[in-house]
Amino acid sequence: MLGTDAGHPHHWKKKMARRRQIYEGKAKILYEGPEPGTLVQYFKDDATAFNNKKKGVIAGKGVINNRISEYLMTRLSDIGVPTHFVRRLNMREQLVREVEIIPVEVVVRNIVAGSLAVRLGMDEGTPLPRSIVEYYYKSPDADKPLVTEEHITAFGWASPQDLDDIVPMALRVNDFLSGLFLGIGLRLVDVRLEFGRLWEDEHMRIVLADEISPDNCRLWDIKTNEKMDKDRFRQGLGNVEEAYQEVARRLGILPESGPRDLPGPKAVQ
What global pTM score does this model have? Predict the structure, then answer.
């Protein structure tokens, strides 16, 4: 199916033909990996909002999110959070472990924003008394509805044991990222996480999957409250590419000159 498009340059065609596409999402494509149990995660520049009702392209987003996610997944792995990330392969691709994705997005909220503000009629920017964990069902066709633990366990999307692993892990990720972003002058308003089941022989463990980037974190500048994330695209605020680049620059993983490719491992230190 892949690699038949005569419009592709020859070498690219050959490369694509060798790899079987497993899944295409709104922001990423997953290909069969080079060894069993692995996938190649390709980051696109496509952006969507409001459950696919608004579509666009953010130039260079894939390159920057690949690098930001590599950096954050590596840092989380350093503090003992198990993730699907193996290593970054090139500007737009990373090698990940193949996991069975749990069809629930776990959102940890620290400050009122987005749908929570609308739902409860609260002002955006209101600090929450404590971090709140919400679940959204990743239904194949519908909008992602807010669901409860009761729905999740009743419909078998995840077991109570799975949730016992997921919730503390989500809170730990939120705590760690909050501190990390605070150190570079950004407030982590909320973060949307996905988890998967990693099977090793007969053993299963829950690991952090997908990506962590300004696509799925709300980040506000501490001094100005300026939005530095996908809300710039959602709300038509402009300068979306610049905001993503600024997040990478503050994390110390983007050269001043812009999103050129850097040698891999050096970016992680």
Answer: 0.87
